[in-house]
Amino acid sequence: MKDIKANITSVLVYRNGARVTRSGKSELPSGEHTIRISGISEYAQQDSFRAKGRGKAVLRGIDVKRVRQVHEPEGDTGELEKKLKKLQRQKDTIQDKLRVQESRLASLVAISGQFAEEFGKWYAAGEAKIEGLAEFDSKTEEMIQSAKKTIRKLQEEMKDVESEIAMLQFNIQQVLGSRVVETVTEAFVKLEVRESSVIEIELTYQVNYAGWEPTYDVDIGDGKTSVKRIAMIHNHTLESWSDVNLQVSTASARRIEAVTPSPFYVDVYRPRRLPAPKAAKSREAVRTVSLIDEGLIAGAVSEHRAEEPMEETYATPSETLSGTTVYEIPGEVSIEATDDPHPVTLTLEEFDSRRLHYWNAVDMAEVVAQDEITNGDSVLLPGSVKVYAAGEFIGETHLDLIAPREEFRLGTRAAYDVKAEKKLLEKETDKAGIARGKRKRAYAYTLEIASFSKEDIEIKVVDTVPHSSSEKIVVELKRNSHPFKKMELGVIEWEQKIPAGQKMGINYAFEVEWERDIVIRPPLP
Fold this sequence. Notes:
The protein is an alpha+beta fold. It has helices spanning 78-124, 130-175, 294-300, and strands spanning 2-3, 7-13, 16-28, 31-40, 50-54, 57-71, 180-193, 197-220, 224-235, 241-249, 316-319, 325-328, 333-335, 342-360, 368-374, 383-389, 392-399, 407-414, 418-430, 438-451, 457-464, 473-480, 486-488, 491-498, 503-515.
């Protein structure tokens, strides 16, 4: 048996898992030989080992074994055991929170189904309005999405805690007693060397406890938006990757299957009592950033500045089967086997974008701006996003899966260069109609929008008029100065273009007529 040293030369990192390549060489005489490559992580998947090589030899086969190596280190496990107990308590707390959130999600889904089933009866009896269904669906969906988001976050926390526990348990085992047993993987490659020569062996295998998560820096400009993709790579494989050729793939190493449906059983809902949820801390939509005074920065920098900005290199992407993208990182990269994520810049792309403004005249005191961005030819995976406008940080958000060439919106912020105000122009009560058994009230409003922007703007304006599902209450839109894009259940949408530095007003009026003995709830303004 011949031992050779095979260092890690390249790594392909998947969303969860990695494929590692080791290379080594040795001069061998002619004849039958078994080459042993040791020092491989115990997390390597035994059925994933493959071998190939160069030289005047025939590859006869490969065998993989898990072996135990005995170490006799010195040290005290006291501090490690304290940390382990703390992590175990943290894990128990996360598990309790997960159970609560999963119970909450199941209850919300059940309540939603029960409400949808019963609503038709209430609506037919005149005890409920269609707005109630829409509002309930909206609120329920919001709570369901919140519960799912919390569950995903807790699952990620659980994964991190379990990884730390595994590392601590491993370290404790190293210093327990006078003898510590470590499990490693060894590969045995069988060769038939035809003639004495130098033989090169390349060994590849899949390994667990590695992967990456996407994060993005999005810089919004005028008509163009740059998106920098960053891979946060974690390596918990117990193998450090030193000066390797690194590739990052959007593929997943876990098994994907087509799931056949199961029977859908329904039953009478029997609610159960749940513990009252703790009040969640509110989180601001946009995080504030403290900026260092420019004068202090200037004072700290030497007068001799580099004339040219430092060049940044990016990965070369290539598309494979079913839209999977592999990014080839330039140069050699080192990623230690630690608990900390390692950021690696993938690409910097420029996408077409257009600025849109939005104002809800009922619920918003100010206009907001968003940018509608058209994705390129590569998928944008779900991940956290830091949003900038012309290089200035404006906030953080989360990006869902964006398909190639799909449009999405980012950078919601207050538009200080556009002002909007809703004004009541006229309110009239028809007293003469009481004699006919009817009551009538008329309203006229104007929506004033002033643009102080240096560029033409596009704005969506939304307002509401009363809407009734009862034939005893009739609402009629009498006049409208600008054609609306859509009107549904009393919600009116206008889409307008306003020239730079110009003002516009949207005028509309409506009447509400109802039978004299009817009381309207909520009351009209």
